[in-house]
Amino acid sequence: GNWVWVHAIGKVRARRPDGWAMSMVGTQTDCSARRADREALDRAHQRLALALQGGHVALWEFDVLGDRLVWHDRLMALYGLPEDEPPLNFERWLGLVAQGEREAVRADIVAALRGERPFDIHFSLEAHPAGPRYIHAVAQLQRNAAGRVERLVGVSSDVTQIRRLSAELAEQHERLRVTLKSVGDAVITTDGAGRV
After folding, report:
1. What is the SS3 assignment for 148?
2. What would the DSSP string read from start to end of 121-138?
3. d(CA 70, CA 68)
4. Which positions of the chain have pLDDT values less than 70?
5. Across the strands, what pairs with 121?
6. Which terminal residue of the chain, N or C, has fewer Cβ atoms less than 10 Å from its own Cβ?
């Protein structure tokens, strides 16, 4: 034999004068498969949490019909908000986006909701406690039976460091281009001792 998980439901039909059960009736159901499924789901959630943490990515959901954002813990930190921040609606969230980008971000989101483009946007946050932050957000649209978008499920990541490094690399590339252009036809390379 082997061990199985069972779900037992029962009812006491008769008791002794001291309260102990004399007779019970009930059922037992083998729930080993359900238990294995639950354990597999728990392991998948643990792997997802590790991937999100390692990738500096945060999950979010937007209930389009109810105008309510559901943020997971990491997203609050990503936006520099306190953990006890009340749930945001779309306009309050949009208020976190840099003022000069808000209308373009709104237009991109509306276009995505209409199915005109994928939900894949970049924007910056001005009022972050650690200074300006650049965010990349990607989402999938979930539609109801009538084809209307009910919910967005997405991920956001802080791409500030990538943007800074890209800008530094572009600046160095431009300096090198200008230097090489001004040198003309000859380039001389020397070692640390000044030898050609």
Report:
1. coil
2. EEEEESS-TTS-EEEEEE
3. 7
4. 48-55, 183-188
5. 137
6. N
